[in-house]
Every structure is written in structure tokens, then in C-alpha cells.
Amino acid sequence: MIKHATASTFVFHQFPDRWRLGLVAQPRLGRHMIVGGHVEDDETQAEAALRETEEESGLRVRLLACPTPALPSGYPHERVASPWWITEVMVPEDNHLAEPHVHVDHQYVAIADSPTPVSEPVHPFAWFSEDELGGLKMFDDTRLLARALFPIMGSIAAADGDEMGLLRVLADSGLD
Prior knowledge:
Blueprint: E1 3-14, E2 19-26, E3 31-33, E4 35-38, H1 45-57, E5 62-63, E6 85-91, E7 101-111, E8 125-128, H2 140-149, H3 153-158, H4 163-173
Parallel strand pairs: 1-7
Antiparallel strand pairs: 1-2, 1-4, 2-3, 2-8, 5-7, 6-7
């Protein structure tokens, strides 16, 4: 089975009334989806997540760190942002391969400090609250992860940069 590296991002913004998740209306699949796509040969998965987010939504975001072990002092190489999850997803033929294959999807969580696009998105993009997800045509796995993230987004954002604080948030939520 052929496997392709992909990167996708749960993009959140805190509006005055609540957190909202940004989703694109993916015309080929006829569903609302988080932003994402294939990793190019000259980029890391984290770089692909940022590029795909800006291409598909027009937004610039910051990826939120997930807990990972520290590198030893003096380690000589640059660290790459770790995804929150890595999953294998069977997909039908697409514009990259004319047969069914697997996407090894590196899933990130990010915050858009501004909800206003800095460039024209390639897909229709909109913000949705947690209670609006049930009425959207979207993949069940995406809806499941989004519903797990919504209740703790404020705590995740507050703990950004505080690894022990984030570990407590995730342990309390059951996502540890």
C-alpha cells in the first residue's frame, strides 16, 4: 500500500463569545474539513501544516506545542514541532495518486490570533462553534477530535509553553 505524508490543522480562534473552529468547504469531497494537505519534498510536516493553513484558509496561525520529551542540553539539531496525533487514513484516488492509498496524517492544533485572512483562501472558509458541528457534513473522526478539543481550548491556549500545565490539562480531559 502506498503511503503519503500529510499534515492537517485544527485552527481555533477565541471570539468574544466563545472558541470557534475554522473549517474549509472542500468542494471535491463535499464536506467541511480542517485545513491540510500533502507534505512537499522540501518541508517538514509542521511547515506543511502552516503552508496548507495559509493556502486553504488565508490565515496565519501559530502551532500549539504538545508535550514531548526535552532534548538533552547541547543537542546540535533544530527541533521540529510535533503533531498532536499521527494517524493512518485510507483514502480513495485523489489528485496525487490515481488509486486508493493511505495518508499518514500529522494533525496539529493551532490558534489564529486574528480571524481575518491575510490572503485569499483557495476554499470557502468559515468559523464554527462546537454546537454547530452536528449540523455540518464532515468526517466523523474530525468531529470526534474537534469535540474533544473544544472544551479544553481555553486551558490549552493558557498552558502554551508550560509543558507541565498542558500535561495536567490533557490528563484531566482524558486526552493524555
